[in-house]
Amino acid sequence: MGELKVLESRLDAVMDRDEYGGEDGRYRIHSLYFDDYKDTCVKENDMGLSERVKYRVRYYNERSDMMRLERKEKSDGRCHKTSCSITEEELRQIMAGNASEVFWQTEKPLLKLFCVRCMTGLLAPRAVIDFERTAYVEKITNIRITVDRNISVADDFDHFADGEYIRYPLQEVGWHVLEVKFDHILPAHLKHIITERHLIQSSFSKYSLGRRKLQMMGRQSADGAYTGVCVK
């Protein structure tokens, strides 16, 4: 934690905190990830494929009345995300197997596409990922640095919207995830702040790690079927 405090104090000196953070600059993120019956998203991530797509529904803090459906596409190391609003009722209908009804009721292209994928690819909810985020932004150069704490996984999808579900931690106490996003060049002063710290660089997929955690606990089988209901 000492290492993280030093890093954050230096980032505070040169960057702005995300405007959506609370008094302590943090906000909580709740994400419901979908995958097909072949666990394609998990397998493509584990294989390190340069092109892959995944869908998730996300809301911030306790604002489940402002859910967003997101399609996150990765191609040649670059990420592109599209999103649209989705209501709790639309989400419940989709999870209940009524994606066709939502398809005909909505005018949102992304939600229609998601419904088609649910019907043809048999997408279904696979994991809820929760964490606390502190975000630093540089709007002019479009640089974003995030620190994610207390990352956990859950599989009680019926209570995704109200947050009343049991969470299982994904990392040892005192470990967190730092992520740096930039378009072209990371300025030297930011690179210096980050690289002089004792950090462990590695690929990190919260969703894949969460799925493995659930499988290890016997909550899911290897094919996704349910057996039951790096800064320090």
Unreliable residue runs: 224-232
Helicity, in percent?
25-40%
Q: What distance lies between the first and last C-alpha atoms, to the nearest angstrom?
A: 5 Å
**On the 0-100 scale, what is the average pLDDT?**
85
Number of distinct helices: 7
Count the strands? Answer: 9
Number of domains: 1
Task: State the CATH architecture.
Answer: Alpha-Beta Barrel
Write a structural description.
By secondary structure, this protein is an alpha+beta fold. It has a single domain (2-216), classed as VTC, catalytic tunnel domain (mRNA Triphosphatase Cet1, Chain A, Alpha-Beta Barrel), CATH 3.20.100. 29% of the residues lie in helices and 31% in strands. The protein has helices at residues 2-14, 40-47, 88-95, 99-105, 109-120, 188-195, 206-216, and strands spanning 16-17, 26-35, 51-60, 68-75, 78-85, 124-138, 143-154, 168-169, 177-181. Strand 4 (68-75) and strand 5 (78-85) form a beta hairpin. Helix 4 (99-105) packs antiparallel against helix 5 (109-120). The radius of gyration is 18 Å and the shape is globular.
Please outline what is shown here.
The chain contains 7 helices and 9 strands, in the order H-E-E-H-E-E-E-H-H-H-E-E-E-E-H-H. The protein is globular.
Features of the shown structure:
232 residues; alpha+beta; mRNA Triphosphatase Cet1, Chain A; 7 helices; globular
